[in-house]
Amino acid sequence: xxxxxxxxxxxxxxxxxxxxxxxxxxxxxxxxxxxxxxxxxxxxxxxxxxxxxxxxxxxxxxxxxxxxxxxxxxxxxxxxxxxxxxxxxxxxxxxxxxxxxxxxxxxxxxxxxxxxxxxxxxxxxxxxxxxxxxxxxxxxxxxxxxxxxxxxxxxxxxxxxxxxxxxxxxxxxxxxxxxxxxxxxxxxxxxxxxxxxxxxxxxxxxxxxxxxxxxxxxxxxxxxxxxxxxxxxxxxxxxxxxxxxxxxxxxxxxxxxxxxxxxxxxxxxxxxxxxxxxxxxxxxxxxxxxxxxxxxxxxxxxx
Length: 303
Ligand SMILES: Cc1cc2nc3c(=O)[nH]c(=O)nc-3n(C[C@H](O)[C@H](O)[C@H](O)COP(=O)(O)O)c2cc1C
Known about the structure:
This protein is α/β, with parallel strands linked by helices. 29% of the residues lie in helices and 19% in strands. β8, α4 and β9 form a beta-alpha-beta unit.
């Protein structure tokens, strides 16, 4: 069976990618599964410098979901490149950087820095983290802001650029179009949905921040719609993300137009989930008489 897919100008051995922030820098998962079997790994968000993130508490479990306000804690691009990337890039899977910045220039600095590393397959621009600016503001809420960062990044790299989009905007399709116009090779969506958790007894937020990002199965129907909206209206490759926990979920995202998927929160609960989900999806394809993942991409039908 042909498991490969093509996305953003890359050929992945299969459509299952580990999402940023839920798989550490990849190497943390080595004891749990054979990472060579994955389509790809997106590492935790990287700034040009180390960051501590938000103070605790930073996670709160909700029915079928997880609220997080990590705030992009990380070791910074140089330490990652020195200490982790050499080992990681020996794996036979596509490695993606998740580039972050407080200012537009910082995104571009990260993109430029990793452009010269052979072990990096592509760069995902994290335009959509809701936990680092007041009120959840981020570039991916605004077509113009997204355009600026993608365009400036395009000028400093030949590597595939994936713009990671936010569902917390009424302009999702316009943002995706702006990313395409600016030269993105693909978009990935969704990042987390803005939410709150309140403690009745203390009358305060359960997290150290006012708002946090919701992920996990609770968001799957919302994410599926978001992916469908973008894939059916913008001519750009889409990577689907949001609440995937089973092989059937993966196939649903491909049906509505995603060319690959990322799995996030499920890895926190079940570190080797990626392999299980992939195997379940392959089994289901076989049962329905398909010979490849490619055959079902975008094959959703409106009756
Ligand atoms: C604890 C945690 C940390 C995350 N960190 C990042 C990050 O550094 N960069 C990023 O682009 N997305 C980050 N995300 C968002 C995920 O990559 C993903 O888009 C989101 O969780 C939805 O997928 P899921 O429902 O499968 O978890 C994080 C999510 C969680 C739960």
